[in-house]
Amino acid sequence: AAGGIPVFLPPIGDDMLPDLLESMDGILFTGGVDIHPSEYDEQPHPLLGSVDLERDRFEMALFDQVWNHTDLPVLGVCRGLQLLNVALGGTLWQDLPSQRPSHVHHSQTDHRYKAVHPMKMDPETRMGGMLPRVLAVNSLHHQGIKELAPGLRAAAWSPDGLIEAIESPDHAFRMAVQWHPENLVHANYPEFMALFRGLVDYARERQRARKGQGAIPAA
């Protein structure tokens, strides 16, 4: 809907990643199951949800290759936000209701196409320039950022102070959100399409620059 061509990347050998990424113009780390807490040096909490060790291994390797060896734009959604934070040295609350009780219900019981709590953007961030300062979002997670990773900055918070969006101040388009904008864009919340258009537009500009038709936007 934003103009990109989605390509599914199954788990493959790490040695194949450089060649694979040569044909990619951007990366979207999607939602999914919990990241195993061994990735941030913790023991599993009794209320840890389902995990997928193969996916963790592959996405950590993919993240390292993308982040450290390419200039590809990156967007993370829900688990994708948590992946960025963990991969760069941050930690997670393994179960928000038991470890960080709050008046905000982050695991909504309503369907995922409904916004259930407000969120404030930092207007000084790149994401803050793409979205309204105050938004309503859906909330489908029982984990969240505990310690923000070095090299990232928070871009939005829920009313209880939980970080809802992050970005890299050192890159033009590397950011992630804790909610699920893909569900909201088709449910009377068109403002969230800006995230996907931003990813595709930057990818297109990067592609043109690589062909000598322009300059990649500065970080």
Commentary on this structure:
The protein has 219 residues and is of the alpha+beta class. The chain has 6 helices and 9 strands, in the order αβαβαβαββββββαα. The chain has helices at residues 17-21, 53-69, 79-87, 96-99, 181-184, 193-210, and strands at residues 27-29, 74-77, 91-93, 117-121, 134-137, 144-147, 153-157, 163-167, 174-177. The strands form 2 sheets. The protein has a 7-stranded mixed sheet with strand order 1-2-9-8-7-4-5, sandwiched between helices. Strands 3-6 form a two-stranded antiparallel ribbon. Strand 7 and strand 8 form a beta hairpin.
Low-confidence stretches: none
Give the strand content: 15-25%
Terminal CA distance reads 26 Å
Rg calc: 17 Å
Give the topology string: H per helix, E per strand. HEHEHEHEEEEEEHH
- Helicity range of the residues? 25-40%
Count of separate DSSP helical elements: 6
Strand line-up of the largest beta sheet: 1-2-9-8-7-4-5
**What is the residue-mean pLDDT, rounded to a whole number?**
94
Strand segment count: 9
Q: Biggest β-sheet: count, sense, barrel?
A: 7 strands, mixed
Shape: globular
| Class by SSE composition | alpha+beta
Task: Provide a brief overview of the structure.
This protein is 26% helix and 17% strand.
